[in-house]
Structures are given as C-alpha cells and as structure tokens.
Amino acid sequence: MQRTELTPEEGWRTIHRTMAQSYSSLYLAGTGYILLLWGALVSVYFFALFAIAELAPGFEANYPWYPGPLWVIIGTPGMIGSALIGHWEGSRNADHSTARSAGLRVFAFWMAVVAAAFLVSGTAGLWSEDGAEKIPHVTIGIISLGYVLFGIMHLPALVVVGIGMAAAFYIPDYFAGDFAALGTGAGMLAVTLFGAAWIHKSGQA
Length: 205
Description:
By secondary structure, this protein is mainly α. Helices cover about 80% and strands about 0% of the residues. α6 (about 135-155) runs antiparallel to α7 (about 155-175) and α7 packs antiparallel against α8. The protein is globular.
C-alpha cells in the first residue's frame, strides 16, 4: 500500500483542527452533567411555582414577586455546581492552570446569563405585583438564549437544547392554563435528559 503524505498546508490544517477540537472539548468539559444539573434546578423551580399556586394561594397573593428571589435561591447552587463540575472535568483534559482558566470563563459566561435574567427582570419593573407573573418569561428566554449562544460557539446540540427549553416553557404557558408550570417542569426535565443523553452518546463532552 502506497503511503500518502500530507502537504504542509494539509498538515497545518490537521494540527489546527486538532487544536481547535481540544480547545473546544476543554470548554465543554462536564457539559452533560451541567445540563442535567440546570435541567433539574429549572424543573424544581417550575414544580415549586405550581405547588405554591395550588397549595398556598395566600402566599402567592401576598408575595406576588416571590418568583424572583426563588430563582436566585435555586440558581445559586447551579452556578456553583457548574463551576465545580467544569473545573473537575476540565482537569482531566489539561493541566491545572489551563483547566482553571477554562472553568472560570465558562463559569463567568453562565453567571452572566443568570445575572442577566435577574437584572433584566428587575430593571424592566417585573419585581412588582403587576409584573411578577412575567419574570419566568424573561428568565427562560435569557437562559435559552444562553444555551443557543454557547452551542453556536462550541456544540450544536446545545442549540437544539436551548430551542427545546424555550418550547417547553412557552407552549404550556400559552396552552396549558393553570397547569402551565407543571407542564413546563416536566418538559424542561425531558429536554435536558434528552440533551444530556445525546451529548453523552456522541462523546462530544
């Protein structure tokens, strides 16, 4: 069999492609686990909204702005967990300093996404009696956009996940009436389980 030699240009392209894949895999380290974590947390958020509305309507009436603080409480362990998972998984692919740098950048990206959901809803005046019910609309829209943007940069599967998360919220919200939060919680969990399984099977992260 005749051996095919690479031209200098082909060799450089191969090296560049390999480096790009390694770079991307470092930033995607633990993505499947992080996706599962956030899917579980977002599902808990919407299940909690449904439970409070059904079991404690007086609380909802007295504190209509509670979805904002509830999201902060649920989102905080998500940010911390994402940073820890990304750092631990990244350490398996690179030296400690490189993994730490990548982990900090990924953490900063998702912290910015969560902070944006918090700040946009606040500056839009939704943390009030009249606007509280729209807080989830802003929150899920921004989080879904975060998945889409991160997916465009690193992993197309996350683009699908982001679109799926948006659909899992907005479709029940418009068509499920009083059971919208319950339907969204179940839909979010299904989307994240599907996305995590897809990522794990593909071996991309």
